[in-house]
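Single-chain item
Fold in token form
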Amino acid sequence: MTRLAIWGAESLLGRELKGTLAGRRDLWDDLRLLGPQSDSSTVSEIGDEATLILPGTEENLSDVDLLFYCTEPGEAVDIPTGLPERARTIVVSGDQLPDEYPALVAGVNSEDAASAGRPVTLSSAHPAVVALAHLLEPLFALGLQSCEASVVLPSSIRGQEGVDELLAQTRSILAFEPRPESSIFGHQLAFNIVPSSYSGERIARAVHEVLGRDPFRVAVQASVGGVFHSLLVGVHVGLSSSIDKAAVRKALDTSSIIEFSKHPETLSPIDAAGSSSLHLGTIEPSSAPGRFWLRAVMDNLTTGGALNAIGIAEAVLGAGGAKEARGTSADGCTM
């Protein structure tokens, strides 16, 4: 019997994870929602079924196989005690992930989660790292040497408070009212782009660690734009000088997560909202041989959040799962 638990199920990413797992009954026999004592007796739901958020006591944790620990940005990560020795924890947060937990991208380095001696606590990589890792990993076959990327993140990267602040600013501007003070972004985000609190340097370092390839140079500039969901990445890659555009497209087509846009010239974050794919737009040659510009969008809550965490869980639990071996059919979304 496989028992999963979600801590912080009412956070923005927690709700996405909870909804996705409701359609993945192949992964669990028991899914419970846990939280601090103050959250207990709160009514939530798993799919169409009402359920209570239980207190995160040792009794409710003692038989859990895997805990998804969801936080809102800015919250300290304080893994509850009481989990059995065999259990693993996956930290899922839209922003500001602790550096001490190994960052994983499903399908890229998630096999590290299943290796012998794996750490007890892992983290689902920052959504920008997820997008860049999936874009870059297929290009190593073409002699990938360098990458310079510009990432525009959505307001939801800062959780529900980020979404609420953007909404309040937008309403005030459209109603010609005084602009409310910004406690989350420090500036007007509505109809604007501001620097990200999660530095491009940290994103670049995590990308390098996830891909684990040398020699390879990566630099990232990160901003936050006045959109609610989905991020945009513009990537300049340096490949072997003999590589042409057709070869780049063929290499990227090997990815199970990349989907080529039917309208690449107009691809924008809204095209990825609610999607389980990384949507690739234009592939344009740069000024030197073997150099190309790529443009892509991805939902930070689905592909870069819940689905990535679930992909890591599949590796930890043994992808395919014991439940399928017992004859339970899988349904819902897959990685």
Summary: Residues 7 and 306 are 13 Å apart (CA to CA).
